[in-house]
Amino acid sequence: MTSQQRQQELLSAAALTTFKLNGQFLELAEHLARPAGLTATYWQVLGAVIGEPLTVSAIAREMGITRQAVQRTADLLAERGLVNYQDNPAHRRAKLVAITPEGRAANQSIGPHHAHHAKELSDVAGADQLADAVAALRKLSEALDALDLSDR
């Protein structure tokens, strides 16, 4: 096997494994969010603004999803009273999405179930191995961010 073939094989294996992991994490997120009356997508957007209000674009960049998908989700969360829109001093037209006390309560209600599954995963995978996997995934994400995806 040539070096180029090995590189291509590794890229494919990384992508396929990541796709499978994405599906598994989405299934787990739905499982965790459902008792709180949320979906995985709702929980994802709430989690993005738990620390500070962000614009829809900033949430989309952080989560790796489209601005339009975040806007639809934020609008639905606002209808349910879980977030609200605030004026943005840095940009007149781009409102900030802020979590409400109801949204914070819904997010916090996931905590005990989340802790249970976090312990299970750590017990099965090993805490040090899980930390190493997270570090490797972050490094892989940074490397993908650095790729030149322009049409050549």
Automatic annotation (TrEMBL):
Gene3D superfamilies: Winged helix-like DNA-binding domain superfamily/Winged helix DNA-binding domain
Pfam families the record matches: MarR_2
Domain HTH marR-type: start-end pairs: 7-142
SMART domains the UniProt entry points to: HTH_MARR
PROSITE patterns from the UniProt entry: HTH_MARR_2
Protein name as annotated: MarR family winged helix-turn-helix transcriptional regulator
Organism in which the protein naturally occurs: Kribbella ginsengisoli
